[in-house]
């Protein structure tokens, strides 16, 4: 039985996607949607930083300024 190759098996290539920050607001504790979104975006070639769920507004703003998503 053969297993299809995924992009995770490929050798690293030069970054050609966008820098993306995924998170949810302080009132949203869902985490699986963030993980799924992160994996999807990474498979599409984007650099993803996941700062998690229930992120206070001030921290979300600070992380956006620090990471400079494009």
Notes on the protein architecture:
The protein is α+β, with helices and mostly antiparallel strands. The chain has a domain of 44 residues. It is built from two helices and two strands. A two-stranded parallel sheet has the order 1-2. It is flat and about 35 Å long. The mean pLDDT is 84. It comes from Streptomyces laurentii. One of its GO terms (molecular function) is metal ion binding. This is Methylaspartate mutase. InterPro entries: Cobalamin-bd_sf.
List keywords for this structure.
70 residues, alpha+beta, two-stranded parallel sheet, cobalamin binding, Cobalamin-bd_sf, Methylaspartate mutase, metal ion binding
Quick description:
This is Methylaspartate mutase. The protein has helices spanning 32-43, 57-67; strands spanning 19-22, 47-50.
Q: Can you give the mean pLDDT?
A: 84
Order of helices and strands: EHEH
- The coarse overall form would be flat
Distance between the termini: 41 Å
Helical run tally: 2
Total strands: 2
Q: Based on helices, strands and strand pairing, what is the structural class? A: alpha+beta
């Amino acid at each position: 039985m053969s297993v299809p190759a995924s992009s995770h098996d490929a050798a690293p290539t030069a970054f050609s996607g966008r820098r993306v920050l995924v998170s949810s607001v302080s009132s949203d504790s869902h985490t699986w949607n963030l993980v799924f979104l992160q994996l999807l975006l990474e498979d599409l070639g984007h650099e993803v930083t996941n700062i998690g769920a229930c992120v206070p507004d001030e921290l979300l703003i600070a992380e956006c300024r620090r990471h400079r998503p494009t």
